[in-house]
Amino acid sequence: MKNPFNHDHPPADTPLVNVQIDGVWTQMPKGLNAVEAARRVGKFIPHYCYHPKLAIVGNCRMCLIETGGPKMDASRAPVLDASGKPEINWVPRPAIGCATNLTEGMAIRTDSPLVQECRRGVMEFLLINHPLDCPICDQAGECKLQEYSVQYGNDHSRFVEEKVKKPKRVDIGERIVLDDERCIMCSRCIRFAKDTVHDDVLGFTERGSHTTLAVHPGQRFDNNYSLNTVDICPVGALTSKDFRFQMRVWFLKETKGICTNCATGCNTIIGSRESTLYRMTPRENEAVNSEWMCDQGRLGFHYIHDPKRLTQPIARHGPETTPLAWSEIIPQVAERLRQFVPEQIGIVASGRLTNEEAFLVAEIRRVLGGDSVLTDYVPRFGRADGILRSADLNPNTHGVTLMGLSNGGASLADLRRSIDAGQIRALVVLHEDLTAEAGWDGATLQKLDLLVTLGLLQNPTTDRADFILPGASFAEKRGSMINGAGRLQRLNRAIPSPGQAWDDWQILLRLKEALGGGNGLHTIEEVFKAMAAQVPAFAGLTLSRIGDLGIELEAAMPKETATE
Amino acid sequence: MPVQERRLILANIDRDGYTPDIDCYLRNGGYADLKKALTLDGPAIVAEVKTSQLRGRGGAGFSCGMKWGFIDPKKNTKPVYLICNADESEPGTFKDRQIIYKDPHQLLEGMIIACYANNVHLAYIYIRGEFVLGAQILEKAIAEAKTEGFLGKAINGTGYDLEIYVHRGAGAYICGEETGLIESLEGKRAYPRIKPPYFPAVLGLYMCPTIVNNVETLCNIKHIVRMGGAEFAKIGKPNNTGTRLLCVSGDVEKPGYFEFEVGALTMGELINDVCGGIKGGRKLKAIIPGGSSAKVLRAGERYKIKSKKPDGTMEEKEIGLLDITLDFDTLAAAGSMAGSGGIIVMDETRDMVECLANINTFYAHESCGQCTPCREGSLWMKKVTDRLVAGEGLPGDPKLLKTVADNIAGRTICAFGEACAWPVQSFVAKFPEEFAKHAEGKVATAARKGTVAQEPSKAMEAA
Q: Do A158 and B367 touch (CB under 8 A)?
């Protein structure tokens, strides 16, 4: 993801300068702004309009600090104090930290009495016309006005005048609602729309305290990245139609996740409470998605709570379906599969499988007969948008390819022909609906003697299946995937799977054991270890070593970036 | 013997028979200074302007030569732009419009010389949107100058090309702030830019080096070229050179615009001798000396002014309001500023709370709304003074006004913060008894007697 600005990441070869921050001398990259410099030494300069990835406009005035430079004597040499460090000439007028770029000898004070007074003043100004409707505001709990008010504001209001009235509940886009009275005119959303995603449709109208954020006449704020503005809006002005009023944010558990809606693999924070996923927000990863994600990916999780979600292992005998315990169904599936010779079995894998799942599928295939078992995956393509969307809509094409489960989709037709011809009589389908996704018709599936499905939702394929194995969604399981650019990333479990649905790797591991005996694997870590021992690309890696931000795989990997 | 006007810029303005067309201008020696300038090197003209010690006439009083000096045409590869700031809108100021309406070629000549000196080939006149006729007059003047070969390609037979375009302003006070003006000229909202990094001399119009000069300043360039920088510097006082257009409004018998050598007369001479004294024989109460954003001065105040004696030693004198000489440094020493030259006089019948409410209304209306303190503070102060005027004052109001203003000044992107805070700070500090009375909550501003506003036509006659 290419940002127009990266104020927090100056080029690595930027020379260092000596700077004094709150009395302590240190070295920092030249030109770094004071907000970022302070952050690097653990000091926080509060700010609203400044954002490390957006143009600097300096309008909120919250980051006012004191600045100074070395005191010079008559010969233009710095005056040194007793410890040999330069004495500082402080500028009486406060400066905004976001536009204060470090130069040699610069000094800043981030928390002096003047700075504190400036912040109190700005907080008071921001709140006088604010509706103070926190009890009904969706931003409450993650609102910078609330947070800074507690930290830097006054404990009472001196404002007795009538507040400025502005439009409420403005429908500016398909996914966004605007409350102008809450807006603090920081212009982050305007700059994001214009500079980052090139959809210049937001702007201000009116003047002074009546300044009003609006969408340009005749335009809608509907682009596929619009919900990022809800994230960067420091207040409750922009809220997500999807998430607003669903859950108070302080009840949300935050789990680090990966978006599985395309091969980009945007890093996410999954917000959940008990067994429900309420929202996904982007998690910063400069190597992948920076701080953004597309609306399609962000909202593409609701299917996991669909009423059609499979929650019970089911065996079908003719028209009869029988719910079974996992301990009953897996031996039955194994026993049925064993009745076929390798050439009679086919496997449809999925680019949605994790590496661990794909590895176990490959193990099962080996036990069932190896290369004689015709296997492929279902490719899925859309259009790359030059920002974050990848043309590859499978999150782990590289992973299933690496495990030998993919022939790029070319064998799907062979598979279908072989079924139609009666050669292949048993089919295992993983996380795919062959009717909708692969375009097969029901007649092909009817020819099978055995159809085993592992997946999330009831569909025409599961309707025909002899065994329905309910698996886990991306938010319910652990494991790893390789994104389109060859980066190995981790999924984490945010919520439990519904009903009897089970982690896919557990199901596959048990099935493999039932088919070919145990191999001493009991945890996902052990599965990864076994996989790393066999797959050179993962040599020396463990699940924990992948870390929260993933690892770029060194092994030759067909490279594809989302932006191309 | 009253001090005489020194009409340099206004030499022809309001003179019988003088018209704004180029024929009249040429008959009166027009464009001779341009012809002279074209025989000189650009840097030589810049040097003359530095020697002249000319200070900007827009309000800030910044050295014009130094401003030009920030731009080194040899060093940069981008084009240099010059913009004439004709967005005159500071309350109490009506000098630039006299030049534009009555002697447009004087402005053009000064501007062409300034462009030539700084190697500018494209310049703009950003004129206040409300000056509709002024824009038409300038357009006509530009067309005339082109016909006569003073603008366009190969000016006056030299190899120098220049185009000047008139751009009508967007109807907001903030468009006169130089970086706001540049944004507006680029077609955007006139939100002033942060400085650093967007100093016009470095990253101005279209991110190119840009000079923004006031109308009166540019007119002075013509006269500096004619008489030479050293000769020009003899007018007025050191560091306060040249003449100054003064706009007097308010409670005087003969308001109007005048031109004097800088520092040649005192406030008392201006009001009593030039403007015929306070209206109706009433007493002077207060003066805002440099446009509505300048801090108010109260009659009876004493100021300690330091000045250099001829032998080089410093002396300190204590003087009263009417003894203040009208120059940049003395007004600054008195705690206010020469600003835009708009002198607003208030007599004893004026309710200072009402006067401040009027100023606050202006600034609340004109705040661009970009940065927090000014956006919210200007309207807050207006609401408080409106309440005081309506007799709904609260005991804490004077202190509230002061602290709100203190939280604006020095904390904003542009000088509008000071412009709206200084009146409040000075009015509340200097007229505490009037604010205290209103703050009791029972006093609404009473209608004043015999103080109807003077009709504009009469004001013009008086001038």
A: no
Q: Which residues neighbour A369 within 8 Å (Cβ) at sequence distance 6 or greater? A: A341, A342, A343, A345
CA distance A252 to A18: 42
Peptide bond into B196 cis (omega under 30): yes
Neighbours of B305 (CB within 10 A): 19
Task: Render pLDDT for A510-562 as a digit per residue (tens, 0 to 9).
Answer: 999 999 877 788 999 999 999 999 999 999 999 999 999 999 997 645 554 43
| CATH class given for the domain over A314-552 | alpha beta
Q: Could you tell me if B256 and B304 lie in one domain?
A: yes
The tens digit of pLDDT for each residue in B155-174 reads 999 999 999 999 999 889 99
CA B393 to chain A, closest CA, distance in angstroms equals 11
Q: Is A95 on the interface with B (CB under 8 A)?
A: no
Please check whether residues B226 and B288 belong to one and the same domain: no
Q: Looking at residue A138, what is its pLDDT?
A: 94
Residue with tokens 């809450």: A182
| Structural domain spans, chain A | 16-111, 314-552
Residue B427 in any domain: the answer is yes
The CATH number of the domain where B270 resides is what? Answer: 3.10.20.600
Closest CA–CA distance from residue A185 to any residue of chain B (Å): 7
My answer on whether B329 and B373 are in the same domain is no
* CB-CB neighbours of B149 under 10 Å: 14
Q: Judge whether residue B28 has pLDDT over 70.
A: yes
Domain hosting residue B337, numbered range: 242-347
CB-based contact (8 Å) between A113 and chain B? no
CA atoms within 13 A on the CB side of B280: 13
Cross-chain residue pair A58–B394, CB shorter than 8 Å:
no
Of B369, B400, B412, the CB nearest to A211: B369
Residue B5 lies in a domain: no
**Least confident window among A141-155, B64-78, B117-131, B441-455:** B441-455
Which range has the worst mean pLDDT, A434-443, B363-372, B425-434? Answer: A434-443
Inside any domain, residue B368: yes
Residue B249 three-state SS: strand
Question: What percentage of residues in chain A have a pLDDT greater than 90?
Answer: 93
* CA distance, residue A49 to nearest chain B CA (Å): 10
The dotted CATH code for A16-111 is 3.10.20.740
Residue B458, phi-psi category: left (phi > 0), alpha (psi -120 to 50), beta (remainder)? alpha
Tally of structural domains, chain B: 3
